[in-house]
Amino acid sequence: MLRFVAKRLALAVPTLWAVLTLVFVLVRIVPGDPTIVILGDQASPAARAALRERLGLDQPLWSQYWDFMVQILHGDLGRSLVTNRPIITDVGAVLPFTIELTVAALVIGVVIGVPLGVMAARRRDGFADWFARIFSLAGLSFPAFVSGILLLICFAVQLRWFPVISTANASDPMERLRALVLPAFNLGLIMVAYVTRVTRSGMLKALGEDYIRTARAKGLPQRIVVWRHALRNVLIPIVTVIGLYLGVLIGNAVVTEIVFNRPGLGKLIVTALNQRDYALLQGLMVVSAFAIVVANILTDLTYGLVDPRVKTA
């Protein structure tokens, strides 16, 4: 197992290096001058040149790239061009809210999606199957901002079951949970859709295999046949789709946090874009990229737990 983990971690290093390099390039090809953002349009050329020198923007690109990589290795994301606060401080203040939202959406996707997909496969072309297919299609069709607005109108404005503004700063755990329900369900809809479709497709194939017919011929209860034998062989594609679309969840979290007015990386990204705070934007992209790489590593490690044969591959 340790060898399997070491191999996956070693493969993640070049991936992370390539992503960091791409982030460095993308931030520097964005139009606009950071010195104008900080000092304003009326700043003198001398003041702008002095600021460029202080920020290291007057250095060659290879020198900036080297400094960037060294800072990342030391866990330093730099300072905001607008507020001059350490970026790691700003990210640390909102990251727990984004993690909370993403994990809640992930749990909703698995808890609802897997049973719904299993039920649809067991009752193929029946009411449950049609319901699961329509529900998953709706989850894939609605953009996050549309479904978020509809949820707010229905459950927050009309029924008043949940708060309209999900500040997520409530000291009361129950109030914080109420503020999390709608954003998490909105973000989890797309995960429910993907997990349901993959589970249904995999279960339909598994339930027609010879080993399932053998298990039924031995007189095993239906729940054992379905949940222990059939579903176990469908876990690999389910884990794959969860790992792949975890990045989609992180991206949709940006829209969800804006719609529900939640603190998080999404609102911080929008703030950085509006203020043209390239340093903050670069730091946020690094954090997002690192989160996706970590999610892919955890997905690979989960393969080894679900199917021990993967460890020898």
UniProtKB/TrEMBL annotation:
<dbReference type="InterPro" id="IPR000515">
    <property type="entry name" value="MetI-like"/>
</dbReference>
<keyword id="KW-0813">Transport</keyword>
<dbReference type="InterPro" id="IPR045621">
    <property type="entry name" value="BPD_transp_1_N"/>
</dbReference>
<feature type="transmembrane region" description="Helical">
    <location>
        <begin position="93"/>
        <end position="118"/>
    </location>
</feature>
<dbReference type="GO" id="GO:0005886">
    <property type="term" value="C:plasma membrane"/>
</dbReference>
<feature type="transmembrane region" description="Helical">
    <location>
        <begin position="234"/>
        <end position="260"/>
    </location>
</feature>
<keyword id="KW-0472">Membrane</keyword>
<keyword id="KW-1133">Transmembrane helix</keyword>
<dbReference type="Pfam" id="PF00528">
    <property type="entry name" value="BPD_transp_1"/>
</dbReference>
<comment type="similarity">
    <text>Belongs to the binding-protein-dependent transport system permease family.</text>
</comment>
<feature type="transmembrane region" description="Helical">
    <location>
        <begin position="179"/>
        <end position="196"/>
    </location>
</feature>
<feature type="domain" description="ABC transmembrane type-1">
    <location>
        <begin position="95"/>
        <end position="303"/>
    </location>
</feature>
<dbReference type="Pfam" id="PF19300">
    <property type="entry name" value="BPD_transp_1_N"/>
</dbReference>
<feature type="transmembrane region" description="Helical">
    <location>
        <begin position="130"/>
        <end position="159"/>
    </location>
</feature>
<dbReference type="GO" id="GO:0055085">
    <property type="term" value="P:transmembrane transport"/>
</dbReference>
<keyword id="KW-0812">Transmembrane</keyword>
<feature type="transmembrane region" description="Helical">
    <location>
        <begin position="280"/>
        <end position="306"/>
    </location>
</feature>
<dbReference type="InterPro" id="IPR035906">
    <property type="entry name" value="MetI-like_sf"/>
</dbReference>
<protein>
    <submittedName>
        <fullName>Peptide ABC transporter permease</fullName>
    </submittedName>
</protein>
<keyword id="KW-1003">Cell membrane</keyword>
